[in-house]
Amino acid sequence: MAARVLRVGGAASPCSLLPGLRKLTSSSNRPREDSWLKSLFVRKVDPRKDAHSNLLAKKETSSLYKLQFHNVKPECLEAYNKICQEVLPKIHEDKHYPCTLVGTWNTWYGEQDQAVHLWRYEGGYPALTEVMSKLRENQEFVEFRKARSNMLLSRKNQLLLEFSFWNEPVPRSGPNIYELRSYQLRPGTMIEWGNYWARAIRFRQDNNEAVGGFFSQIGQLYMVHHLWAYKDLQTREDIRNAAWHKHGWEELVYYTVPLIQEMESRIMIPLKTSPLQ
């Protein structure tokens, strides 16, 4: 049966041709449209395959860092500090353990009744494994952990590597306050963060406030921690404001802010036995 064609004034109606044209146009243009759409959403990847940790971390050292957060029962904070100051320096000073206590603090502003400890393991994961194994045989440390557990509400830790463009944290005299600025980055943006901060760090060196910069490997991932030292809160304010008067700082801030999902600042006071005072 012949197909019926609507005629207007003796001519075939354009409407009668639309279904066929739509089918032809759709089938012929779809690959091109799909390709165009994919080009919008698919990011080109550098053919070189390497973990961001290998690209961003220091090559001359194989140090691994552990950052510990202990939320202490408010009534136990003084006793907690006392036993930490008795036991932790012994591990730090004992050459039997390939680790160093970089710093130990109580938060002053930020999350309250919190202790923060930063350890360095010279030799990476094998050193960490060695220390943990030896501490299980250390009766004093076993008793310390048992007593400490009764004083805590919660605890967490992260294993970190050090950014290659930051100075390694070394002991310093005080008195100082310390700021730990923690950034939760959007997944996949660590390389971009490192590229921007490799330039940004030069704006924050004049007053020797930069202590260390780290990124997480185990624990909460895509976390960055910047550790700063200041004489007091007013000095912190003055130094941070001065950075905005340096050409290029505002541009780097503009490009790094979109990489951040969440950020937190802790102002911390070092314990008397902390190498960072």
TrEMBL record:
SUPFAM superfamilies assigned to the protein according to its UniProt record, in alphabetical order: Dimeric alpha+beta barrel
Biological process terms in GO annotation: mitophagy
Record's keyword annotation contains Mitochondrion: yes
Record's keyword terms, sorted: Autophagy, Mitochondrion, Transit peptide
Main localization, broad class: mitochondrion
Gene Ontology CC annotations of this record: mitochondrial matrix
Compartment(s): Mitochondrion matrix
Matching PANTHER family: NIPSNAP-RELATED, PROTEIN NIPSNAP HOMOLOG 2
Protein name (database record): Protein NipSnap homolog 2 isoform X1
Protein source organism: Hipposideros armiger (Great Himalayan leaf-nosed bat)
